[in-house]
Amino acid sequence: MEYQKAYEKLEKYGQLHVLKYYDDLSGYEKEELLKQIGETDFEVLKQCEHKAELNPRGKITPIKVMQLPEIEAKREEYTQTGLNAIKAGKVGAVLLAGGMGTRLGSDAPKGVYNIGLTKEVFIFQRLIENLMDVVRMADTWIPLYIMTSDRNHETTTAFFKEKNYFGYNPEYITFFMQDMAPASDYNGKVYMEEKYKMSTSPNGNGGWFLSMMKWGIVDQIKAAGVEWLNVFAVDNVLQRIADPCFVGAVIATGSAVGAKVVRKNAPDEKVGAMCLEDGRPSIVEYYEMTEELMNAKDDKGEPAYNFGVILNYLFREKDLEEIAAKKLPLHIVEKKIPYLDENGMPVKPENPNGYKFEQLVLDMIHQLDSCLPYEVVRNREFAPIKNKTGIDSVESARALCMENGIEL
Ligand code: UTP
User: Structure pTM?
Assistant: First the structure.
């Protein structure tokens, strides 16, 4: 982008401070900064002004969940249906690994974290091993798409190569990068990370399908006949991926999307709960749970919002194309953002100092007409690693792995 155009763009969005050091930059740095200005969507920063009214919620009511006894009764039938789809190459898997994993406190991508005790057991390795169970069962490689971000792409791809893809067939692994969004102070002014670079952060886990489109992967998927995509988070080291019974249940019930859920361990547990919102499938976040919702009972007298999502969804590819044409809501999240102070000195804040802007995969569910919440046994399939110690940590995930006979 030319200087004059960049100036006008920044002026329009009240971000002229981005050019504060321009005259001191080298030729290369000038080019880099102008390119970044050209590529950045500053429109999102304006959302700070009406943060409170951003995502008004509709009427929340309970949704029917397919619970364990119902699944057990049909396990064989569903598993066969799912296996047939997998064998026919209709199911792909999408690993969301673009996050910063700040709570874990490591600068490296979360997936390269070693949770082993007597040997190396990397998070990525655990996920590949889980997927390999289904590959062996179906006797077919399942295409795996791995989303990274600008911050971790090189390290992630190099790590997989170095580890020989943990025995997965690399022909069936495709990496792609998500987009970045500017990160700002509380007044919506973008921070500078370097004199020639604005602070950015990955734009959330909701942009994965758009990024797949951008990278030409959706065309490949369609040509290959993939009809379903099982999207999942990097941090749950016990999750079943392309689980044949889950795939079969979603297909057999004619659902637009399937969501694996676990029974919550307390009404106020910090997980999003499946619900209907204005009659459409949705997720109510733990911080949106009012007393009334926490105490609500269904027709069997059970807590009405008792099933939490674990970020493992099965989407129909066709529907994803429709969702991609719509605008997902924007979430503004408080965050620690490294920046340059008034004297141009780099600062790494200890506490949140601004906003990052994200779209979330859970908002994609609300765009669809029907969803099958599918219960899984919590201690067998849910061992998320968000923190180093305490709840949802390396420690708790290790204990759960050992409980499930996984050597660490
Ligand atoms: P989290 O919400 O736990 O975010 O991501 P995070 O960035 O990894 O971790 P913290 O909050 O900074 O500690 C849930 C899943 O979504 C992916 C993550 O990699 C993880 O699999 N994700 C998140 C992305 O792929 N991109 C994003 O921009 C954000």
Answer: 0.95
